[in-house]
């Protein structure tokens, strides 16, 4: 009920597949997806493991609501130790893959070991097989996806896998499913590549049952009604996608620009949602074709875009004349304002390649922007970039960079290291806009103080999706807080982090929380599974998961010193906009955050906290 | 009044709530592979299209069935498969020109849309009104109205009856 009760364990070294029952006690304590898979990981994998070694494991995990009629109930996560960060990694994705995995009968798939040669895995209901991948190794995930469906004569198969970037161990390569949905962050794709695993293909013909059908239909219908009636989830996101944020964040003076030297981008309007919907001068057609939903989602924020066929990026490449996944806000920012590029179709093309070769566009864009700054100060030269004039604002340079990084070739090998390693290699670690080695997304911690603390304390490295305080600080959800103050932010960050960990363990999308609170999610979960789920219980669950992740990171060698922001955020004040003159108040917020968490001043959960949470 | 499912692919987001509602109604579980309505994703064109049985007046499936397991409900016009009579020969799946009647391997019978006895769960579940349940004789009216509006706008600017500009 809700859970399938089965886990598939695939050992790639021995080429064995095994079904085992889901640990029921753990499911009741850690729910599913992020929580449950992390529990398995921390129990089975040494925190000091080499992320790209055979002893690391890669878990694909669904939640109890995955594959049900709960709105957005199609999520799955990839959990492993991340090579970009050396910390816990948990990347969440939509599309249709997660639900299909559930229909095939599996709560989770655990990948162990390393295949001696490239393989892909098929999971057709209860039958799992390991196949030779020599025909698709060295090709993009778009090609591999099509090839697998043809090879197995079933267009209803859903595929999640890596592009060439993951094979070449680009440290921020992603696992992409359904062509343009991604478990994007922390380099989970490189872990897949390190195991010589190209892709996982699933097809399920079974169903998902729930504990109390009548209550479930009522609770999910009520949830959908809330989403539909909310301005963000009912109108803003379906119409504009996450790009609804572009102009708003720019006006708030919190849009990291040119490697975070600036906090506002003069080209923001050119790469905004409004620009995507406006007919182009060149061919009279808009960039945006339509919105698309992931499985079960009644919001439908996904963008489907088409590039002008005469645009310089694709004019001789008809294979890119078709529609595909368009720009989300984070990608538009990372590829656009952060590199100073305001050519919308060029950004769309770069986004296509990030999907095709399975790269995280946030870390890719932020690494390019760090490299652009190194180029500007003369540390990188044209000889070192293989002839690329790596200037801020150059769409041509950006395009060349993605083509090389996607294939792990030439200067792309350097970019594939990520900004922390790249800038350290050239003696300027301060130019990496990252925390725990992972690049920040599209909100500046000077103009929005809470998100700075969220970045510094995120268990998977710099990230907005571990605690999206933007909801409160910009949108006033659930209540408005002043983005420019540090007061009250430690409690806000903790509350968002704990709630998000619960949402990420349930099978629904975190975007629902623009409208839903845990009070909306708890009845849906409770009707689906046993365990007596309430909002309070979910908060406690979230806190338990957060501390479990923290303990893993501490064992991996992270200390309070790593809860940091780059010097630029702490010393260089914002130059324009509402945050002019501000730096991040991280040092004020951090001690209060530790105290609220029940951690020592060194950032270690106290014995009391550990026992209170039953860890 | 005869009612039918009216599908507007332009409104479909591909969320598959219709497939889940259909499978829950018929199978008491969420199982899109057993849904009688299916959403097809024409990805390269950016189009999602739901498709299901249109309840033909003279149904080929019904005419092909050798054991008369498919009957017409007089009031609603729905073609109903009687599971107790169906022998799973699949001839109806060959006869149907639209592919909307299909074999269910777990029961050994065929399944098709029966409009949920007059309140289709898919239309109820669709969040964007891409699937609606309407009077079959008026199913085209929305489209007619849209084209009428365009035609009206054209005649206003170019037609013989265009108002004379006043100064």
Mean pLDDT of chain A: 98
Decide which structural class fits the backbone of chain A.
Answer: alpha+beta
Kindly report the CATH topology of the largest domain in chain B.
Answer: Alpha-Beta Plaits
How many domains, in number, for the residues of chain A?
A: 3
Give the termini separation of chain A. 26 Å
The number of distinct helices of chain B, counting runs of at least 4 residues, comes to: 5
Rg of chain A is: 22 Å
Instruction: Give the tally of β-strands of chain A.
Output: 17
> What is the CATH architecture annotation of the largest domain in chain A?
4-Layer Sandwich
Q: Please state the oligomeric state of the protein chains shown.
A: heterodimer
What's the short version?
The complex is a heterodimer of chains A (615) and B (167). With 615 residues, chain A is an alpha+beta fold.
Could you please describe the fold and organization of this structure?
Helix content of chain A is 38%, strand content 13%. With 615 residues, chain A is of the alpha+beta class. Chain A is globular, with a radius of gyration of 22 Å. Chain A is built from 24 helices and 17 strands. Chain A starts with 5 loop residues before the first strand and ends with a helix. Chain A folds into three domains: 6-203, Aldehyde Ferredoxin Oxidoreductase,  A, domain 1; 257-432, Aldehyde Ferredoxin Oxidoreductase Protein, subunit A, domain 2, CATH 1.10.569; 439-612, Orthogonal Bundle (Aldehyde Ferredoxin Oxidoreductase Protein, subunit A, domain 3). With 167 residues, chain B is an alpha+beta fold. The longest helix of chain B is centred in the last third of the chain and has 18 residues, at 141-158. Chain B is globular. Chain B starts with a strand and ends in a 9-residue tail after the last helix. The A-B interface holds A 67-69, 71, 96, 99, 103, 156, 179, 204-210, 213, 217, 224, 228, 238, 289-298, 300, 304, 306, 322-324 and B 13-17, 20-21, 23-24, 27-34, 43-48, 125, 127-128.
């Amino acid at each position: 009920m809700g859970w399938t009760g089965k886990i598939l364990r695939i050992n790639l070294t021995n080429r064995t597949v095994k079904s085992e029952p889901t640990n029921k006690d753990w499911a009741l304590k850690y729910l599913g997806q992020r929580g449950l898979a992390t529990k398995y990981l921390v129990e089975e994998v040494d925190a000091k493991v080499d992320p790209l070694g055979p002893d690391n494991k890669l878990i694909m995990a669904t939640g109890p609501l995955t594959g049900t009629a709960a709105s957005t109930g199609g999520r799955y996560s990839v959990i492993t130790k991340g090579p970009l960060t050396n910390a816990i990694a948990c990347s969440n994705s939509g599309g249709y893959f997660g639900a299909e995995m559930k229909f095939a009968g599996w709560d989770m798939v655990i990948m162990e070991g390393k295949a001696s040669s490239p393989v892909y895995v098929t999971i057709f209901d209860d039958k799992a097989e390991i196949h030779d991948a020599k025909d698709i190794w060295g090709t993009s995930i778009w090609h591999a996806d099509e090839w697998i469906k043809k090879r197995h004569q079933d267009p209803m198969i859903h595929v999640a896998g890596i592009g060439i970037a993951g094979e070449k161990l680009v440290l921020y390569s992603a696992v992409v499913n359904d062509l343009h949905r991604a478990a994007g962050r922390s380099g989970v794709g490189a872990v897949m590549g390190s195991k010589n695993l190209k892709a996982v293909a699933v097809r399920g013909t079974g169903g998902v049952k729930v504990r109390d059908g009548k209550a479930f239909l009522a609770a999910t219908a009520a949830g959908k009604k809330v989403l539909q009636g909310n301005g963000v989830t009912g109108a803003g996101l379906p119409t504009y996608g996450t790009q609804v944020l572009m102009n708003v964040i720019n006006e708030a003076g919190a849009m990291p620009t040119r490697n975070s030297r600036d906090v506002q981008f003069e080209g923001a309007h050119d790469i905004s949602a409004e620009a995507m919907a406006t007919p182009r001068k060149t061919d009279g057609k808009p960039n945006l074709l339509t919105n698309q939903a992931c499985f079960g989602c009644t919001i439908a924020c996904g963008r489907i875009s088409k590039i002008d066929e005469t645009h310089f990026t694709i004019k001789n490449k008809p294979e890119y004349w078709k529609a595909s996944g368009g720009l989300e806000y984070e990608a538009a920012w990372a590829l656009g304002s952060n590199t100073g590029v305001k050519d919308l179709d060029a950004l769309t093309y770069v986004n296509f390649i990030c999907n095709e070769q399975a790269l995280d566009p946030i870390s890719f864009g932020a690494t390019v922007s760090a490299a652009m700054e190194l180029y500007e100060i003369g540390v990188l030269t044209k000889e070192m970039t293989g002839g690329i004039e790596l200037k801020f604002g150059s769409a041509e340079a950006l395009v060349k960079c993605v083509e090389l990084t996607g294939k792990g070739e030439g200067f792309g090998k350097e970019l594939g290291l990520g900004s922390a390693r790249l800038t350290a290699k050239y003696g300027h670690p301060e130019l990496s806009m990252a925390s725990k080695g992972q690049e920040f997304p599209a909100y500046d911690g000077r103009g929005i103080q809470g998100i700075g603390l969220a970045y510094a304390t995120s268990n998977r490295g710099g990230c907005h999706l571990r605690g999206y305080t933007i909801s409160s600080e910009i949108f006033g959800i659930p209540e408005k807080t002043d983005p420019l103050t540090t007061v009250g932010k430690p409690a806000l960050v903790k509350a968002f982090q704990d709630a998000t960990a619960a949402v990420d363990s349930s099978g629904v999308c975190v975007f629902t929380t623009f409208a839903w609170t845990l009070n909306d999610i708890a009845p849906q979960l409770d009707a689906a599974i046993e365990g007596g789920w309430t909002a309070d219980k979910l908060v406690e669950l979230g806190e338990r998961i957060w501390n479990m992740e923290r303990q893993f990171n501490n064992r991996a060698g992270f200390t309070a010193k790593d809860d940091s922001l780059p010097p630029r955020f702490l010393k260089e004040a914002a130059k324009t906009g509402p945050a002019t003159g501000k730096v991040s108040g991280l040092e004020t917020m951090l001690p209060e955050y530790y105290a609220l968490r029940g951690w020592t001043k060194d950032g270690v959960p106290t014995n009391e906290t550990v026992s209170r949470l039953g860890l | 009044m005869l009612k039918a499912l009216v599908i507007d692919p332009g409104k479909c987001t591909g969320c598959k709530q219709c497939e889940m509602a259909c499978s829950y109604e018929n199978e008491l579980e969420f199982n899109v592979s057993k849904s009688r309505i299916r959403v097809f994703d024409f990805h390269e064109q950016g189009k999602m299209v739901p498709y299901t049985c249109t309840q033909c007046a003279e149904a080929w499936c019904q005419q092909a069935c050798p054991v008369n397991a498919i009957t017409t409900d007089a009031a609603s016009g729905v073609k109903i498969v009687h599971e107790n009579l169906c022998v799973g020969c699949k001839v109806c799946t060959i006869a149907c020109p639209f592919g909307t009647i299909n074999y269910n391997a777990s029961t050994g019978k065929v399944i098709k849309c029966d409009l949920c006895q007059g309140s289709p769960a898919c239309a109820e579940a669709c969040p964007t009104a891409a699937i609606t349940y309407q009077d079959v004789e008026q199913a085209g009216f929305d489209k007619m109205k849209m084209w009428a509006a365009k035609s009206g706008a054209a005649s206003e600017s170019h037609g013989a009856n265009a108002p004379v500009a006043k100064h």
